[in-house]
Amino acid sequence: MARDLAPEVERLMRSRDANTKKKAALCSTRIVRKVPDLAENFMGLAASLLKEKHHGVLISAVQLCTELCKASKDALEYLRKNCIEGLVRILRDVSSSSYAPEYDVAGISDPFLHIRVLKLMRMLGQGDADCSEYMNDILAQVATKTESNKNAGNAILYECVETIMGIEATSGLRVLAINILGRFLSNRDNNIRYVALNILMRAIAVDTQAVQRHRVTILECVKDADASIRKRALELVFLLVNDTNVKPLTKELVDYLDVADPDFKEDLTAKICSIAEKFSQDKLWYLDQMFKVLSLAGKHVKDDVWHALIVVISNASELQGYSVRSLYTALQTYSEQGSLVRVAVWCIGEYGEMLVNNVGMLEAEGSITVTESDALDAVELGLSLYPADVTTRAMCLVALLKLSSRFPSMSERVKRIVSQNKENMVLELQQRSIEFGSIIQRHQSIRSSLLERMPVLDEATYLMKRASTTQASIPAYKPASAVTPGDLKFPNGLAKPAVTPLADLLDLSSDDATATTTASTTTAPSDFLQDLLGIGGTNLPTAGAPSSASTDILMDLLSIGSSPSQNGQLVPDLSLAQEKKHVSAAPQLVSPVPEPVDLLGSLSSSTSVSGTKSATAVPQAVDLLDGLSSSTSVSGLEDACPSITAFQSATLKITFDFRKQLGKPQESTIHATFTNMSSSTYTEFIFQAAVPKFIQLRLDPASGNIVPANGKGSVTQGFSVTNNQHGQKPLAMRIRMSYKVNGEDRLEQGQVSNFPPGL
């Protein structure tokens, strides 16, 4: 029907009657929408209608032109050549026209025509520099002359800003548009402020400096009474943070955290922690900010955040004394914050002697007087305040056990406190209490070596495990249709590599090579407490499976005798904090509690803990630690392979570290370290690898996508390879690194052929 009636509608559009022209133009709009093939029939008529004086005809003609641009690229090009001048004339006339009662809305002449014309101009100017240049003057005129004290004027200004941000406008015009949005942020109307924040989130990618000028106003919006404005402003502040303003912005957010609404604290806390992790310039500043967040909103801090904090403290040996003193002081005032209590208890257990003896004092730090009894009081406070929190109570018990070794004079008091949980209804706490009591009472000879300080936790490994459990997210302000695989971002600045053709990268003609560029989907252990306090350990199989990790009772329960390194590789030290797994002789949960079964009691002094023992039932009343000397050792869990320099150019160096599990010679885990040797920072860094078809490759997410200049930092990435022809063919790999230097794309690639023998 539309095809049959189209010629008649065209005839009516040439009518002398304005009303008929208007209705015919509206009908044409619907015809083009139904039958896009007919768009070329209406292009000339639509352009001619823009010369009319009647506003009704003009609005209909502009709407028809808009529909034609959507329906046909040919129509879009035609209207760019023939309509820009007419649209500029219409906009100039209507914006400077005198008062006309039939078109006036709150003192503004025909705001509806204003908005229709601005939308069409945005479509015509998008991606076309010539059209955009022709529009610049009239857009500047509308932006400066339109009054903003009425809603109609604000609607025109909003559409004008959208048009300026959508076309190839000059930098001065964009600054003018962003300044208008800054005025919107001071408006009393919540809707106007909200739409201004939305546009600013898009504008920050175009002109960051112009948006930064309104930082103070945006921060005030974070404190707004309206929840929607608060959340949107917080997202915008997060985008505004950079290396130069991170400290003042973080201070403002932390100060507001103390008075923020409880419902908003969770979002605010998450953003502050993310900013501190992503932009921390030194560890001391990072620790200070995290301690403040834990003190003010510890209830809202997620587990992975305080786990990461413990990893950082473990690696910052020069700040461990400062950390434990700061946490102890905060615990005296903010003991109701659960996450603060957990981190403080862990630190007191590990570094209690530093707390008491004021070890590692910083220059600006004031000394505090803490006795051994005070340190125990702090841990006991955690036990008493969180009777239903199994994780906190378990960490407190571990800390008490470690303090019995740090402070021998407090052993009896520790034993009394620990024994209070022997009848606990939670089996985990009951078992810890019984076993820890046995260690304190019967095994003084090995207690110091058993309860030595945890080895340094592998920060890079933890970050990779943490990133692998984080779902890729798309910011809410981005249109879904504009998102490509390369646009997906992980939190903390980790970018998911774009899936790109790798035919040129492979170049392994002898073996039809296949490439793998997607991140591993293997889920890390869901129990992050276990993962954190036993980082570097192997995933335990199901009960009954023959495995060195699962069948070795001493390794499973206590990590006895483990040292920071074995054969050059990190050995897991669960330090009594790991969950119970394969204990077959746990005490029955009945009342009254029977005599405790001591699982730690009949090893001779010559017994060594081997990772290859088979799991057997432990007879009752057997103490597996009885007579065990402090020299007990744990056999190595991994084969060590020498590190190699996989790639080196004048600007980039890549080293590979290798790990192999015993019993699986075909599987290797590789830890790559990327170091920037140039004087310019690399951004959007992406590593890709390709291997022959007999090798399986799985890449984990990188620790970041920014490589600092002059070797002052590095990016790490782990991946695993399985050589299905192990012993017959060696590993072979081609690698490619893409990055940007000062906005310019760079690409380097090479072949790795110097893998150690046996891979």
TrEMBL record:
Q: GAE domain: from which residue to which, for each copy?
A: 639-756
Annotated signal sequence is none
Listed name of the protein: AP-1 complex subunit gamma
Q: What family does this chain come from, according to its entry? A: Belongs to the adaptor complexes large subunit family.
PANTHER family hit by this protein = ADAPTIN, ALPHA/GAMMA/EPSILON (PTHR22780)
Q: Which SMART domains match?
A: Alpha_adaptinC2
Domain of life where this protein originates: Eukaryota
- Which gene is annotated as encoding this protein in its UniProt record? LOC100833599
What's in the keyword line of the UniProt record?
Answer: Cytoplasmic vesicle, Golgi apparatus, Membrane, Protein transport, Transport
Q: Name one GO biological process term.
A: vesicle-mediated transport
Entry's Gene Ontology cellular component terms: AP-1 adaptor complex
Q: What is its main location?
A: membrane
Q: Where in the cell is it found?
A: Cytoplasmic vesicle membrane; Golgi apparatus
